[in-house]
Amino acid sequence: MSITPGKIVRFHNTGAPDVLQLENTEVALPKAGEVQVEHKAIGLNFIEVYWRTGVYPIPLPCCPGSEGAGIVRAVGEGVTEFKPGDRVAYGSGPVGSYCTVRNMPAHPLVKIPDAIDFETAAAMMLKGFTAQYLLRRVYKVQAGETILFHAAAGGVGSIVTQWAKSLGVRVIGTVSTREKAELAKANGCAEVIITSEENIVSRVKELTNGKGVPVVYDGVGKATFVDSLDCLKPRGMMVSFGNASGKVDPVPLNWLAERGSLVLTRPTVASFTMDKAEMLESAGEMFDVVASGAVKIQINQRFALADVVKAHTELEGRRTTGCTVLIP
């Protein structure tokens, strides 16, 4: 049996970034239905902080990561859509991308167009899938609408803001600092609320002539959840897709009624990439908007895989902007 040596990051117990350990590994030939991928770049996402800290329980030991790009080195029996040498990327799991080489199911993989490099692909897949389902599937934004997006200078925010602007949507973004406000404006936010200096609800109502917005995209969670509800117009949609500030407390249903028959949803990437055809459609739309220049993937941080502890420390400390990649 052919064995490929490699490196893998695992944590054996939950905790601070230093629980992440770089270990040696050996990868056998892929089984039926699997593809062996040699990573050239790996995407870093906040969900990996949730796993590492235990906010989202996950079986241990765990190699985190759901996003990567690289070259196909081998394919298992029955795999016909890929061959050795293909450039591929994925952003919908399974968990385990913090490594130099891995075997994984063929289903999540998509071929990378020639116009997209490995780092861009690794940085955009999970965040791009998220942006696509938020803007085009969960609530299909329309030209002329005003929307509210929290953490507008982050990885998902930087993609959503550019994409929404290209669709003729006015984006109100929230950020934590003045430096991030400048970045959010550069990405296309029409208005930016600095949460440490301004009241979110008052400012949104002011910017919408008291009406509120039809949709709020909230990946921050506990710290912004109630304000998000209060920013919506009657029959608006609250899209809670992350918990960067902590888990949202249970929500009394009457809150939705009292604020005007609001709709509340908690979507995940997995639910929007289960169907292969739908996933390929989403990926194609993502690649098209990036290749056209309408959305620029901003890789503002690069870390060697061996420096994963530092990468997590910066990410969890909110000291990153745009996208971050690990380089094997």
Automatic annotation (TrEMBL):
CDD domains: QOR2. Signal peptide: none annotated. It comes from the Bacteria. PROSITE patterns: QOR_ZETA_CRYSTAL (PS01162). One of its GO terms (molecular function) is zinc ion binding. The keyword NADP applies. One of its GO terms (cellular component) is cytosol. SMART domains: PKS_ER. Keywords: NADP, Oxidoreductase. Residues 15-326 form the Enoyl reductase (ER) domain. Pfam families: ADH_N, ADH_zinc_N. The keyword NADP applies. This is Quinone oxidoreductase. It comes from Limnobacter thiooxidans.
